[in-house]
Amino acid sequence: MAECRRCLLLESAGENTLEEIRMRIEKLSEKEKASEEIYNSRLEECKNCDNLISGVCMKCGCYVEFRAAFKKMKCPNANNRRW
pLDDT (tens digit, 9 = 90+) per residue, 37-66? Predict the structure, then answer.
C-alpha cells in the first residue's frame, strides 16, 4: 500500500488495526475519554497536519485516533499545537 499522507486509520489502515484502536477507545473510562465533539475536532485538525502519515503522527509515533480520544492529551507538536 502506498504511503497515505494526511489519512486517518479509517482511510488507510487494515480493518484489524482500526478495530483494535476502536476497542481500546471503548475501554476508556468516561473520566479519561474526550467528548465525541472534541474527538472529531481533533481528528479534523490532524488530517490537515503535515506530520500525519497513514494514521500515524510523525511527531510522537502514535495512532492519532487513539491519542485524540484521551481528554488530557495534547497535540505532540510542541512548536505548533493544533489542539
Answer: 999 999 999 999 999 988 899 999 999 999
Characterize the bridge pairing of strands 52-53 and 56-57. Answer: antiparallel
User: What does the domain layout of the chain look like in residue ranges?
Assistant: 9-67
Q: Compute how many other C-beta atoms are within 10 angstroms of the C-beta atom of residue 71.
A: 14
Q: What is the pTM of this model?
A: 0.82
How confident is the model at residue 2, as a pLDDT? 55
**What are the E-state strand segments in the chain?**
52-53, 56-57
DSSP assignments along 31-54, one per residue: TTBPPHHHHHHHHHHHHT-TTEET
Written as nine digits, the cell of 80 is 505548533
